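#lab-general

N.A. 3:47 PM
ok so I finally got the sequence cleaned up, no stray characters, all 444 residues accounted for. can someone with queue access submit it? mine expired

B.Y. 3:52 PM
send it over

N.A. 3:53 PM
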Amino acid sequence: MADSLMTRSHNSQPRGYQLSILNTINSTLLLRARVVLPVSQPPIREGAVLVSGNRVVAVGRWRDLSAHRRRRTVDLGEVVLMPGLVNAHCHLDYTEMAGQLPPPKKFSDWLKLITEIKAGWDYSDYTASWLNGARMLVRTGTTSVADVEAVPELLPQVWGGTPLRVFSFLEMIGIRGHRRPAAIVQETVERIDSLKGYRGPPGLSPHAPYTTVPELLRLSAQTARRRKWRLTTHLAESAMEFEMFARGRGEMFDWLQRSGRDMSDCGLGSPAQHLERCGALSERMLVAHANYLGKWDAALLTRRKVHVVHCPRCHFYFHHDPFPLRRLAKAGVNVCLGTDSLASVYKARRQTVELNLFEEMRALARNEPALSARKIVRMATLNGALALGMGGRIGELAKGSFADLVALPFAGKIADIYDGILHHEGDVAASMIDGRWAIAPTPS
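B.Y. 4:20 PM
back already:
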């Protein structure tokens, strides 16, 4: 059943437009748009993108590229053609939990509730949830996603159910000592080595400092360096976590101590300083959230070239203190955007919520009115690509980049292009991932 569901999801096309021609990966396509926005370069009026196979071979003005021989032409009409969005932190597994977890009074209450819900799910629940989340992302303009995989048994089958470029980070938890950290890491490495057919290389995800022991963090970091993998973790997400590590006390400290966690690593500094002591901070690390930082933490993250993923709607859901964006930006930290999961997005009665990076951009704009639309769009494209080690290949339209791009209806002034993107609602008009149409354009 899961296999047939994934096949239908991958092969279904919401629109048809000479698909037998447009999805021929060896063909050369010239895509025309009212505006082409490379993001890494200024917008191009009456622009075009030349695609050969799964790569962009040229970006420029239509009149300059239209003379190219041996190409097929697709006129996308009154749209802005831009790189696909890069979602740097997501939990596709939990998509179907939307609305099941009301905003908690305490972060630990949410942890307990989601653990209870997960205990009642089986393989088919997680499969359907993962695939539904992937469909949401494709419809709303994401082409690359960093997904924390709590159910590694889903891989690699679910990859075949989506055109997304998925970077699967396999989650590891170990706090009670029932299993040695070395065994946990080794099992995860063996599982990754067995995986085939990925578009985005997998990585490691020690879940969070409070759900791991120092040795698991150390071994994860050492393995990532040796294998040249990325790794991600949830860092300083709650005030409770900060109090636990910085002061060795508080509700999370007491709860985890009762659960059998060795708390000797607490009371020694902030969560970020804890990761530093474990040797886990490096340019390969993406930390999700980083909502609560010590005085010198921003400088520490900069020195170690760590990437921070901010999830604005999740931040609102938990009513955290204001996100320290200005401190991080002033220190030079690369900050990008993620959706997190729908288990931590507020859902009003009769409201429908979905995984949608445009919604995250708008939530950030509401929280940071002084932040320009241009910077927000870069956080959802270029910055995410840099965090994933994919700078120059995704998150921008440039010679040699992957042909991952989306088209949005746009009839405004070129000077307002970034505001127009920020306020886009609904599905994208077209989406191409790795040189193939994920959402084919409607004939003009």
